[in-house]
Amino acid sequence: MTTEAAPPSSPAALARQRRRRAAARFWRQYRTHRAGLVGLAALTLFALVALTAPLTVGSDVSNVTDAPGRPMEGPSAEFWLGTDRYGRDLLGLLVWGSRVSLLVGLLAAVLSVVIGALAGITAGHYKGAYATVVMRVTDWFLVMPTLVLAVALAAVLPRSLGTVILAIGVTTWPTTARLVRAQTLAVESRPYIERAKALGGGHGHIMSRHVLPNVMPLVLAQTTLMVSSSILAEATLAFLGVGDPTVVSWGGMLQDAREAGAVSSGLWWYLVPPGVAVAGVALAFTLCGRAVESVLNPRLGVAR
After folding, report:
1. What is the structure's pLDDT at 46?
2. Please, which residues have CB within 8 angstroms of residue 73's CB and are 6 or more apart in sequence?
3. Greater confidence, 209 or 178?
4. Closest CA to 105 of 280, 270, 245, 291
5. Is residue 57 part of a domain?
6. Residues 20, 282: contact at Cβ < 8 Å?
């Protein structure tokens, strides 16, 4: 009895199979990093808190007119973290502020990495005068204080979350551009790039089909590392008073505590929770980023 040969899989099915195997291999290697697992667990907790905020604390937690408590009240059974100067529950504000801080951090990091990746890939591919101009602009952004540029941009544009995201994104991309350009130059020197050019591959084909897949691991690792920096930058901008005053964020809570005199009055419950939250989520993203970087580039683990 003869058995019929299985029909060959389609290219799409083969691509999906390769992606599944790559994802499984990545997870097996990632699980060997204990710090990365701790960071991932912490990020999962922060994400759950942010996503369930409308159910746990409600959307009217920032309402000043219907504040449930007395102003500047200390922690109690009713208000676990006390109240702010308007009598609002600080625990509810902390939970609700996680949505804004995480959203701004993620979007600003993505914007920064996209700008840096585009600049790095094009500068590494085209070279010549174009690369010189792009890298000189990159050097200018590198030597300028990022916070000062972000504050200036946020002060000029209308005060909104979009402005904060834009201010952080357009001032933090140079590091990514430098890293991606170096990786692009290494990829462009490989023989298969020469073969692709000899077969008539254009600039767009080479950059999208050959260079981009090879720099994506670096871009992914850089994104996870940039999120923590973006969250800290958002908190700093809000603390300096150039954020969006209509939304609740951890940085805005710190700025509000400063204006209320919490530092001089010793109202620790007004200052410590948002500060610990900012530090905790930044540390969690950093741990995940280092683990991802180590998995995607095993030579880093050997060097360390």
Report:
1. 93
2. 79, 82, 83, 87
3. 178
4. 280
5. no
6. no
**Beta bridge partners of residue 83, listed in sequence order:** 89
Q: Closest Cα to residue 96, out of 157, 49, 33?
A: 49
In a domain, 290, yes or no: yes
Q: Which residues contact 300 (CB under 8 A, 6 or more apart)?
A: 293, 294
Q: What is the CATH number of the domain that holds 184?
A: 1.10.3720.10
The answer to whether position 16 is within a domain reads no
Q: How much is the pTM?
A: 0.82
Q: What is the mean pLDDT of residues 248-261?
A: 87
Strand ranges, E, within 11-136: none
102 Cβ neighbours under 8 A, 6+ residues apart: 46, 47, 50, 231, 281
- What percentage of residues in the chain have a pLDDT greater than 90? 27
CB atoms under 10 Å from CB of 84, counted, come to 26
Is 25 within a domain? no
Tokens (6 digits) for 288: 């995940």
Query: Are the C-beta atoms of residues 243 and 166 closer than 8 Å to each other?
Result: no
Interatomic CA distance for residues 283 and 42, integer angstroms: 9
Count of CB atoms within 10 A of residue 1's CB? 2
How many distinct structural domains can be found in the chain? 1
Domain range for 294 is: 30-50+82-303
> If pLDDT is split at 50, 70 and 90, which confidence band does 302 have?
very low
282 backbone φψ class: left, alpha, beta (φ>0; ψ -120 to 50): alpha
Contacts of 203 (CB under 8 A, 6+ apart): 125, 126
State the Cα–Cα distance between residues 115 and 55, nearest whole angstrom.
36
Report the alpha-carbon distance of residue 257 to residue 82 in Å, rounded. 12
pLDDT computed for residue 298 by the predictor: 60
Listed in order, strand segments (DSSP E) in the chain are none
